[in-house]
Specification:
five-stranded mixed β-sheet; disordered N terminus; about 55% helix; 5 strands; alpha/beta; about 260 residues; disordered C terminus; 2 domains
Length: about 260
Amino acid sequence: MAKATTGAKPKLTKEEKAAARTAKKVQSKERRKQLWQAFQMQRKQDKALLPIVLSILLVGILLGVGAGLLWGGFAWVFGPLFGVSFGVLGAMFIFARRVQSNVYKQADANPGAAAWSLQNNLRGKWRITPAVSGTAQLDAVHRVIGRPGVILIAEGAPQRVIPLLAQEKKRVSRIVGEKVPIYDFVIGNDEKQLPLKKLNPTLTKLPRNISAAEVEQLDVRLKALGGRVTGPQAGLPKGPLPSNVKARNIQRAARRR
């Protein structure tokens, strides 16, 4: 009697294996193409990128050759290879960091930038509600719930957004009580403000004050509170606005919705 083979992976035919290899090659080629396009775009905006990348590659090669001279033997073969690999990894790391810095630089001070950063780049299990309060000038207060507690992030003109933030903090405190910490930050580059590029790292470094279960409970309770938007905030885009887009055009489009 034949034994049951439940749970075993079915064997692929030669045609299926060939198709899988072809698909993998196509995906790898597409990734390389996207990486090259990103490099070309960044190089046009960042004149120092190419010299830095080439310098890191050169340093890696020199380290590999130095290891070969020091140890001899097979190190003559593997040393340069190791050096090239080390240089490529270093260059990729620097490239990624400079691209990220450029993205934040372009997004900085644009409406919706903080919400975009939270929704796309904040790692971990967070409950993010953008624009729980705002104005017709596209100032906004965003709410984040996580293990640290409740975090309110305001972006916009300080003279308008600071009172808005204080109102929202008072409103939230009535719901969560005194046991749950409430943090608040104003995004900007002035004194006592938090730069956009430091927003996500700052949140991840906050202490863990509540449990995961309490996070879920808070999220449900605060969602029931709803948002109080004092202008056409429903028209606020999910990403940062381009710097050449005027706020009144966005407001006009939002009113038509």
